[in-house]
């Protein structure tokens, strides 16, 4: 066993804790592979944790967006209802104004007829008094 040595070569590049094994026993190689596998497994676990964290952030964001979308749809429905009610009120007010205008015009015509009738009556009654006074 003394003839076999573990050789650590430190290259100029940054290689993460990797042993360069040339003439080592299979058990040492197995241990090195297990260590490498452990490091890869740890990196994978860290990636899973980060992935789960990001997924949770995205889920919360998606829920927030869904909530805002629902609020926006409800607001749109309320606004549409408001516009419909406002339009109905406007149409009712226009109809009422037209009815009132029509009633006013009818009353004005009726007043004109009554005034002209009164004038005729007044004139005829005034003439009859004048004619009666002349014959007396």
Protein model, in words:
This protein is an all-alpha fold. Helix content is 81%, strand content 0%. The protein has one helix and no strands. The protein has one helix at 26-135. The longest helix has 110 residues, at 26-135. The protein is rod-shaped. The model is unreliable at 1-8 (pLDDT under 50).
List the helices and strands and how they pair.
Layout (H helix, E strand, L loop, with lengths): L25 H110 L1
Helix content: over 70%
Number of helices: 1
Binned strand content: under 5%
Count the strands? 0
Order of secondary-structure elements? H
Oligomeric state of the chains?
single chain
Based on Cα principal axes, name the global outline: rod-shaped
Backbone structural class? mainly alpha
Largest sheet: none
Mean pLDDT: 84
How far apart, in Å, are the first and last alpha carbons?
170 Å
Radius of gyration: 52 Å
Query: Segments where pLDDT lies below 50 for 5+ residues?
Result: 1-8
Features:
136 residues, 1 helix, mainly alpha, 81% helix
Short description:
The protein has one helix and no strands. It is an all-alpha fold.
């Amino acid at each position: 066993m003394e003839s076999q040595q573990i050789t650590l070569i430190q290259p100029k590049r940054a290689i993460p804790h990797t042993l360069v094994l040339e003439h080592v026993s299979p058990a040492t190689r197995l241990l090195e592979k297990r260590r490498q596998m452990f490091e890869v497994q740890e990196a994978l676990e860290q990636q899973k944790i980060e992935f789960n964290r990001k997924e949770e952030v995205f889920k919360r964001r998606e829920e927030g967006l869904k909530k805002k979308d629902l609020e926006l749809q409800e607001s749109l429905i309320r606004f549409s209802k408001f516009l419909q009610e406002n339009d109905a009120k406007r149409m009712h007010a226009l109809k009422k104004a037209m009815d009132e205008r029509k009633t006013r015009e009818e009353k004005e015509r009726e007043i004109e007829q009554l005034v002209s009738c009164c004038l005729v009556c007044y004139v005829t009654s005034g003439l009859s008094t004048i004619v009666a006074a002349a014959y007396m």
